[in-house]
Write a structure and sequence with these properties.
The complex is a heterodimer of chains A (216) and B (285). Chain A is built from six helices and ten strands, in the order E-E-E-H-E-E-H-E-H-H-H-E-H-E-E-E. In chain A, helix 4 packs across helix 5 and helix 5 packs parallel to helix 6. Chain B starts with 9 loop residues before the first helix and ends with a helix. Classes of the chains: A alpha/beta (216), B mainly alpha (285). Chains A and B meet through strand 6 and helix 3 of A and helix 7, helix 8 and helix 12 of B.
């Protein structure tokens, strides 16, 4: 797959596979195209050439449109959003397109918030929450969507050390217990805990892929 | 005039009902305009409705219908043009803003349209509504409120973050297109009611005031609607009592309520900061 903007080609031949249940971290310098890559994966941007398949469906096709909600997303703006909305309303976004009765959706919202330890924040305005609380609410929204794949773009950017640690513990739990494939853009994964991650390092238009057994 | 006597005069009664419906529902569209940053787009639509109304006056058709048609055409034209030219949508909106008003002036000049009719486009004509106008405004208000209620969660998602809405499986392009079309229609209707110069007093001002006090998305829409009702009905009564134009009455009441809410919001924030400070102080010392 190739990606770029106008006359600038970010990368030409990126080719890799993420298996179900994997924990993948995409790293690289600023401007190397990490966010562009996840946006192409989500169908938010078109690829210049080549294609991405998600769960067997090529991104952009009618088949993919039916399964695209199986990929949930936490973007960089998740922490800076200023729209007057409560934490519960944010989590409810994840349930909007689920084919379930209204009362079941409500239950799912509460269950997801409980699972992410943010049920007590349900009535709080999202804008007044701390960075760590906002990320917990965002993860609850993703969980509510019942995804197979969770994509996060620099989720720890605005977090303090403890919140980063808590976030990564939550992600590892979702990956391990709920078997959700995690694809995370990050440049600070070294600070974290033990686990088996696949590292996709992007540099100068190429990618270097390696599986990494890490010990804290 | 005794305020109760208003209801004995059909034009005043019709105007009052139209403002009631508009006050309740137009601010819902105002929330979209503010949150989706459609202010420049809204100005273009105002000029589009002005051109449509001028053309209608020139050829002798209903200005409201022409305003609707011109604005739908503008909505359908602006997004593809912006995509094709790769220019910012705001730039394209600015281009159309001046072109539409320029063409409107040509039409006004060439057809020697009466100043009284042109002024009614700028000032509105709330007391000159026909039964058909009233039915259109009431029907449109009911459709707007119903659509907001039915698609409420999808709308919240798009207003919260369009990328998140898309990745949650929501057809955010459809929601955005519907919002654009409803903005165009609302602007055309508000022009008929309150005029081009002050239509923001029923469209955007209640929404701005709601943003000052709302803590949730549901609260935001409800507050916008309540403020719209207070502004329109309060302004209507105020205008009749003081014998001033209704559009001015609505705007002045709106500005007063906005100022009060702004002061209240500032005070509440100050108190909350003081509370946090006091709590921290007590805890640490």
């Amino acid at each position: 797959m190739a990606a770029g903007f106008e006359s600038r080609l970010l990368y030409n031949e990126v080719n890799f596979t993420v298996m179900p249940g994997e924990f993948v971290v995409i790293t690289g310098e600023n401007g190397c195209g990490k966010t562009t890559l996840v946006k192409i994966l989500l169908g938010l941007l078109p690829a210049v050439a080549g294609e991405i398949h998600v769960m067997g469906c090529r991104v952009g096709t009618p088949e993919w449109k039916k399964i695209r909600k199986k990929v949930s997303y936490v973007n960089q703006q998740a922490v800076t959003a200023d729209f007057p909305v409560t934490a519960r309303e944010v989590v409810g976004i994840g349930a909007v397109e689920l084919s379930r009765p209204h009362h079941e959706k409500k239950q799912l919202v509460l269950k997801s918030m409980e699972s992410m330890n943010c049920l007590h924040l349900q009535g709080s305005p999202y804008s007044v929450l701390s960075g760590g609380e906002k990320q917990r609410v965002s993860l609850a929204r993703c969980l509510c969507q019942q995804p197979s794949i969770l994509v996060l773009d620099e989720p720890s950017s605005y977090l303090d050390k403890q919140s980063k640690k808590d976030l990564l513990l939550s992600l590892e739990r979702l990956n391990r217990e709920d078997r959700i494939t995690v694809i995370m853009v990050s440049h600070e994964f070294h600070e974290t805990h033990a686990g088996k991650w696949k590292i996709v390092h992007m540099e100068n238009g190429t990618v270097d892929i390696r599986d990494e057994d890490r010990v804290s | 005039m005794n305020i109760l006597e208003i209801f004995q005069y059909p034009p005043l009664l019709k105007g009052g009902f139209a403002l009631l419906a508009a006050g309740l529902c137009f601010p819902l569209v105002g929330v979209f305009i503010l949150r989706l940053n459609l202010v420049a787009f809204k100005f273009t639509l105002m000029h589009g409705a002005f051109l449509g109304s001028a053309v209608a006056l020139a050829v002798g058709i209903d200005p409201l219908v022409a305003g609707f048609l011109f604005n739908i055409a503008l909505v359908l034209l602006l997004a593809p043009l912006s995509r094709a030219s790769r220019l910012n949508a705001g730039y394209i909106a600015a281009l159309f803003m001046v072109v539409t008003v320029a063409v409107a002036f040509v039409v006004i000049y060439k057809f020697s349209l009466p100043a009284k009719d042109i002024l009614s486009l700028l000032w509105g004509s709330v007391f000159a509504l026909t039964n058909a106008d009233l039915a259109i405004i009431a029907g449109f208000a009911a459709v707007t409120a119903s659509l907001v209620a039915i698609f409420f969660n999808r709308i919240i998602a798009v207003l919260y973050d369009r990328e998140i809405a898309f990745s949650s499986g929501i057809n955010e392009a459809l929601v955005s297109n519907l919002v654009s079309i409803f903005t165009g229609l609302t602007v055309a209707l508000a022009m008929k009611l309150i005029g081009a110069l002050l239509l923001d007093s029923v469209l955007v001002l209640p929404a701005i005031t709601a943003f000052l006090v709302a803590k949730s998305a549901r609260g935001l829409f409800m507050a916008a609607s309540v403020f719209g009702l207070v502004f329109s009905m309060g302004g209507f009564v105020f205008a009749i009592t003081l014998d001033i134009p209704v559009s001015s009455g609505v705007t002045l009441v709106g500005a007063l309520v906005f100022a009060l809410c702004f002061a209240w919001a500032k005070l509440a924030k100050k108190r909350s900061l003081k509370g946090i400070f006091k709590k921290t102080w007590t805890k640490e010392y």
